[in-house]
Amino acid sequence: MNEIIQNLSDIDTNALLFFNGIHSPFWDYFMSAFTGKVIWVPMYATILYVLLKNFHWKVAICYVVAIALTITFADQMCNSLIRPLVGRLRPSNPENPIADLVYIVNGKHGGGFGFPSCHAANSFGLAIFLVCLFRKRWLNIFIVLWALTNSYTRLYLGLHYPGDLIVGAIIGGFGGWMLYFIFHKLAVRLNLASKSSNIKMRQTEMIIYTGLLTTLGIIIYSIIQS
């Protein structure tokens, strides 16, 4: 078993060093900006707007609470429960033996432990919740690509191993599905939402447009800075 774990760790490290080694000034700025939380506030606000356009305000609040609990579940499972138990250092942590091999952007080494990734968990928690809720093909594609890119930024910045991201994404995705299932059943039981999953959702493309405009802004910023 120890040999299997060591082999998986070696594969994880080699994959990290490979992808982390692909860098340029443009991508340094792009990844640093994309990984931020504040820059995505317009998209989060648009999600709230779309919820209010498609559901009674009580249902919208119900789903907002569910999303908040999804993020809380993902964050606490990763940060408070699993990380202290596993104790795996971030690749960029100065105490990690491979730290000198990791490309660091803007001198940001991150915290101590990194397994699993809260960033990946939160991103995929939100993404899977929206996939279950809206069930719109193009929105599904966009939000999953957004979560993948958001997770990849942590690899590029040397803050997580690929394994950290994969496990974080699984935890977050499960949390998103679970909280959607619970709160949707609750809303139906309280006669606040329909049992049907075939309700036509309106203006969900606004989430895509806002996300793409934000990404375009990050691209322009990165071009100017580099």
How is this fold's topology laid out?
Layout: H1 2-20, H2 25-34, H3 41-54, H4 57-86, H5 118-134, H6 137-156, H7 162-189, H8 205-225
Concise overview:
With 226 residues, the chain is mostly helical.
Can you put this structure into words, describing what you see?
- Residues 63-180 form the Phosphatidic acid phosphatase type 2/haloperoxidase domain.
- It comes from Bacteroides faecichinchillae.
- This is Undecaprenyl-diphosphatase.
- Keywords: Membrane, Transmembrane, Transmembrane helix.
- The chain contains eight helices and no strands.
- With 226 residues, it is mainly alpha-helical.
- The longest helix is centred in the first third of the chain and has 30 residues, at 57-86.
- It is globular, with a radius of gyration of 19 Å.
Structure class: mainly alpha
Number of helices: 8
Helix fraction, binned, reads over 70%
Instruction: Determine the strand fraction and express it as a percent band.
Output: under 5%
Largest sheet: none
**Mass-distribution shape:** globular
Cα end-to-end separation: 46 Å
Find the count of extended strands (DSSP E, 2+ residues): 0
Radius of gyration, in angstroms, nearest whole number: 19 Å
Contiguous runs where pLDDT drops below 50 for at least 5 residues: none
Mean pLDDT: 92
Order of helices and strands: HHHHHHHH
Pfam family, one: PAP2
InterPro entries: PAP2/HPO, PAP2/HPO_sf
Transmembrane segments: 29-52, 59-82, 113-134, 141-159, 165-183, 204-224
Organism: Bacteroides faecichinchillae
